[in-house]
Amino acid sequence: MSEAPNRDILFLRGKLNALSAVIRLGHESFTRTELADWAAHVVNNSVLALPYNRAALADLRSGTARVIAVSGAPQVNSTSEYVIEVQRLFQSCRRVEAITALIPEKMTELGIDRNGMEAREYLAASAKAIFLVPLRPTGLPPEEPTPFFYLVEFDDGESASIAPAMLALLRESYQESLAHVLNRRRLPLVRRVIDRRKWFRPSRVLLYLLVLFVLASVLVRVPQTVSAEFSVVPETELISYAPFEGVIAECRFRSGDRVKQGEEVVVFDTEERTFNLNAARNEFAHVSAQLELIARQSFSDPAKRGQVRLLELQKEKAAIEIARNQWYLEQSVIRAAADGVIDLGEEEKLEGRAVRPGERLFELLGDGKLVAEIELDERNASVLREDCTLALYLHTRPESPLPGRLISVSPKPVLTAKRTYCYVLRAELSDPASTELFYGMRGIARVAGPRVSLGYYLFRHLVLWFRQL
């Protein structure tokens, strides 16, 4: 006697569970805002209220059946055999308006064509019962054809027996939520954008970041800043070069010695020049004596008047040779052009060495103003404008910049020791005495040009990086 009440209680409990599942599925379908998301919810989650084997949902609004969701598949494979057969079935059953069990007799009664019958035979090979559920969004005019169809397959006879009642309940909820989804898709763009439920979705966050980046690329302006090496050098270069070809006899100072203006630094070997000078003087005296004698004799002997002109030319040649050797002797001593520190390089290799005209002998580091000499790669020449700014960071003091003002730029790039073409910039250092600068100090210069848009700045560096690959 007690088994019948228990069975009734279990039966009622099952009904309540099924009803609560239908209500929950209907409520969750209203939370879907996209048609594809709603269709995936219908075919995958309806199994909680009605156990079925497989389900599919199609969109027929264009007049041609298009499967938009298949249970158990994250994406619809439109080329699969199952999807093709289901689309044939939906296309043939597009005039069905009620929940229908697809059995041959019923399909014949509804006038389903041969394609639909063949598609049904294909599905019946793996399913005991097939139900077709037309879905008409709430508010759709009755004269319009049914736009959506829901196909459910069962391999269990007990589940198929309760399918019409459960599908009717699900159909009511799904048609209302479908109308909500379709009407929302027709809302103006502004209303969809301000929907707070979608503000922080990953796709929306990425869209925000993309919009911000595009706006920043156009509106934000940044300075063009490049780096270049610099060294501290005198404002005026006091470099002495060999005036003629000769041999260095003596260096009176060593590198690092302080010299005063006019002191002798390098002395050439002048023995040969002195000998040539004495020979030229003797020749001059000899020719002068001959010229005087012939000039007196020419008054009485007209035949010797022609020799007078010849001797005068020889005398002029000897005088030129004397002046030439005297110049060599005067230039054989290289003196300091100003007070300062001498830089001879390797002075022990300089003494006794034969040098050519124009060869560097020594550099005088004077006590004048110091400037920064910057080697800027010609690829970064776009920063060179009248309003460009400099910040100089010494290797010995990188924590604070040394202010500088651009005073000159080489008219064209020069080939540096690193085999790169660079513009040579000179910058005036503000109050170099207070910064304790020394000759030869080196560092990194930051050259900032006019401001450009962030998009141009990033694009330029990307292209330069790509060109170097």
Structure description:
The structure is a single chain. By secondary structure, this protein is α+β, with helices and mostly antiparallel strands. It is 41% helix and 26% strand. It has helices at 3-30, 35-45, 81-92, 104-110, 114-124, 157-161, 163-185, 189-193, 202-219, 271-297, 305-331, 347-350, 454-467, and strands spanning 54-59, 66-70, 100-101, 129-135, 148-154, 221-234, 238-241, 246-251, 258-259, 264-268, 333-335, 340-343, 354-355, 360-366, 370-377, 389-394, 397-409, 414-415, 421-429, 442-453. The strands form 4 sheets. The protein has a 6-stranded antiparallel β-barrel. A 5-stranded antiparallel β-sheet has the order 2-1-5-4-3, sandwiched between helices. A 4-stranded antiparallel β-sheet has the order 7-14-12-9, with no helix packed on it. The two termini are 89 Å apart. The model has no long low-confidence stretch (mean pLDDT 83).
